[in-house]
What we know:
By secondary structure, the protein is α/β, with parallel strands linked by helices.
Amino acid sequence: MEVIPAVDLKGGRCVRLKQGRMEDETVFSSDPVAMARQWRDLGAARLHVVDLDGAVQGRPANAGVIESICAALDIPVQLGGGVRDAAGLSATLALGVDRVILGTLAARQPALVLEMAREHPGRVVVGIDAREGKVAVAGWTETSATDYLDLARRFDQPGVAALVFTDIARDGMHSGVNLDSTERLCRAVSRPVIAAGGVHNLDDIRRLKTLTPLGLAGCITGRAIYEGSLDLAQALALAAQP
Length: 242
């Protein structure tokens, strides 16, 4: 199971939000590239980057910083936030990004996202962001009537690299992972699943590891490693154990 550190970008800085609220931010670094290197140097094999401004604005907003992060690292970078069409996907991949996470576009135009996944096999990840089981879009500012499992099943297709599942209520809250919802998703699809939202300490890593036989491929952690409740090196070592 991969443990993937997150670098969330807002105004060119590395921040963390609580439950996705743009006004509820904590700034952790004014140098996201240095922060990305720090996580790489601790052993991370992949980095998760979120363009928070892009997610709300509906277009990439931190392209320069993202390109600098990709150029500075020798590990793959996956990016979410602001990619809403095929041109945006191509432009983002051109920055050096390994995989692009599509959430809002997946909810609104699933056929287009499946076509993009076929054209770029292994490069498209679908983001399933849920608030009380319903899919949220547009930087989590809107909640739809779509059940998260129904949307996930739509993308259980070859070409889709993985599904990233975020429980919004847990995100940035140190409240622990939503193991039940994550397990239901793993059982519903055959695509690899990456869990996000609520990872707080090593106990959460242990709990998530029990889902690896069901297809859980990794988890994303942000606030916990920035504030110290989770030691990234220890988490990586635990996740690597059989």
